[in-house]
Design brief:
Strand 1 and strand 2 form a beta hairpin. The longest helix has 41 residues. The chain has a two-stranded antiparallel ribbon with strand order 1-2. A two-stranded antiparallel ribbon has the order 3-6. Strands 4-5 form a two-stranded antiparallel ribbon. The protein has four helices and six strands, in the order ααββββββαα. With 124 residues, the chain is of the alpha+beta class.
């Protein structure tokens, strides 16, 4: 009985943590996307001419692979699908793990779209 209570409490904390994480990371990733967009706009001509430009210690060129991960979270009957900030493909494993964990703990249980959107987010 106590074990069931502990497991239920832990699971509840994981779900609430997923919601909070989704909110916090959305703010952070939106800000990072705006900063990256400003970098791209200010270096547009250099990048289009084939030059490499440095942004936060990373060199970017036209050939730099970028990724964005999808995650979802549900609140009772509403399921939200969002995406992470753009990242160089070779430095994106942390964001991928964050998106997977938010989807696994906070996305699946919304009715009726939670399980469907969670599977879609994990497949992308």
């Amino acid at each position: 009985m106590i074990l069931n209570l502990i497991i239920s409490s832990l699971f509840g904390f994981l779900i609430i943590g997923s919601w909070v994480s989704a909110f916090v990371f959305r703010i952070i990733w939106d800000r990072q996307d705006k900063e990256f967009e400003a970098f791209l706009n200010s270096n547009r001509d250099r990048l289009l001419s084939g030059e490499s430009c440095e942004y936060k210690g990373e060199l970017y060129s036209l050939n730099t692979g970028l990724v964005r991960y999808t995650y979802c979270f549900s609140i009772i009957v509403i399921t939200f699908t969002r995406s992470s900030a753009l990242r160089p493909a070779k430095k994106s494993s942390r964001e991928q793990l964050i998106c997977i964990l938010m989807t696994l703990f906070g996305g699946w249980w919304g009715f009726p779209w939670g399980p469907i959107k969670s599977i879609q987010a994990l497949m992308e």
